[in-house]
Design brief:
The complex is a heterodimer of chains A (about 325) and B (about 170). Helix content of chain A is about 65%, strand content about 0%. With about 325 residues, chain A is mainly α. Chain A has one domain. Helices cover about 20% and strands about 15% of the residues of chain B. In chain B, strands 2-3-5 form a 3-stranded antiparallel β-sheet. Classes of the chains: A mainly alpha (about 325), B alpha+beta (about 170).
Chain lengths: ~325, ~170
Amino acid sequence: MDTALLIEWLIKSVILLFFGLTGFAYLTLLERRALARIQVRIGPNRAGPWGLLQPLADGIKLIFKEELIPPLADKPLFILSPILTVLPALIIWAVIPWGRQIVIAGREINLYLTDINVGVLYLTAVASIAVYGITLAGWSSNNKYALLGGLRSSAQMVSYELALGLAFLGPIMLAGSMSLVDIVEAQKNLWFVVPQFLGFIIFLLAGLAEVNRAPFDMPEAEQELTAGYHTEYSGMKFALFFMAEYIKMIAISAIAATLFLGGYRLPFIDLPPILDPVVLFIKIFVLVFGMIWVRATLPRLRYDRLMALGWKVLLPLALVNVFITAVIMVFTG
Amino acid sequence: MALPERAQVQEILRGMWITFRSMFEKPVTIQYPEVKRRIHTRFRGRHVLNRYENGLEKCIGCSLCAAACPADAIFVESAENTDEERYSPGERYASTYEINMLRCIFCGYCEDACPTQAITLEDNYELSFTSRRDAIYTKERLLVPVPEGGKPTPQKVEPGVFTRAVPEMADPTD
């Protein structure tokens, strides 16, 4: 294999990981500041200018915290599950395109790690692995709150994955490809959010449930389950669960932007390819801010209503959406 | 299929609008160590022991404050004044005056009981201490500084001037 290609992949992976981890750190700050503003407070502003060093302070604090492992916990699984949760959140970035090609020193560089022809399938497959981490965390802690949180998360994530997968189908049918780059290029003139508005709404709701964000944060439900699946976790292992949650938030926003909002492209305007990641970043920012905003507004759903919404509303709606899209595509050619 | 009702969607959107609007309101946070909250006139903060203009202590060591204290936080021990070493007008002064801030409930009864208005609750609320011993405020910590033109106690005074422990009322009908 070409050495230069290997180095290129390595650099791009490092950039993606760096983006993911810094994104996680500063998303926690953004969330705390935004929630504070919505609640007419100021939020953390002591560590550094505008509180910019707060994530660093939190990180240092978590590193020096004692790592507790309950004596009756299943030790190997207990250690494994945070890793199992955070890994999919990181590797999901491999197929998300963040730009076209740029030329550096006579070498054409694609601004994505890889463009596999089953990109969307990869997304759904990788996103499903995270549920193992959370369920195993709940089970191996040997704690009833954690177990309940784990059970809830497995039921919730499995139910909402169906609607999520069906919402993926709309853009796939319109673009006629499962490659994410093809899907973005197919939205050159019209974002898929217009013909697939219902699909977009279903995707947003199911995506919120998939990353366990309010109002679908049943697995961690502080008030009922103390902290759900991560009740027994402390220190860096606890930080890994949070890292996974926030990176998944960014990832699901990136996927929503790619599938429905034109990814790294703006409609009609042709920007130089070097600005593509900026365009994608702005879209991700808006979607992530929306998630924080929803969290600040809506109370947690009751568990049976969550299941009813998933199975009785979102799944049939997604099926209807796929059916209508298919019929229209057949008739209009 | 149970689609959400129109009213439900409307309420969700209304809620989102309210939280969006509140983002542009002025924060109610007071940046505490730099900015301090306004203190109300009848606020009851830490006690002080006051002095007369000439520097003599108002406290005459009568222990009425200790008797009035519901939390038993005040301890007073009194001693005799002489004209050579005068701390306060009248016969006696407080040689020891201690308030245990861990017991004090800031009710202000000591202030009410005091016949000379020697003890008053002022506006200092920043009472932090790192040991139980530090929590006991001694006389030195409670006494206000000597006012301008006054002399520190004990003072050497003319005999027969400061014979009244409780000052004469300026207006008895008041």
